[in-house]
Amino acid sequence: MNEVVNSGVMNIASLVVSVVVLLIGLILWFFINRASSRTNEQIE
Known about the structure:
The chain is mostly helical. The chain has one domain. It contains one helix and no strands. It has one helix at 2-43. The radius of gyration is 19 Å and the shape is rod-shaped. The N and C termini lie far apart (65 Å).
């Protein structure tokens, strides 16, 4: 029983980690896009 619970916890933990990394990547991409579009407007 313990082994099953441990493997389930590990699966959930890895899932949470991948989701968090994905969210951070999306937020970074969003900010970089906004910054680059802002500099493009200033250049023109």
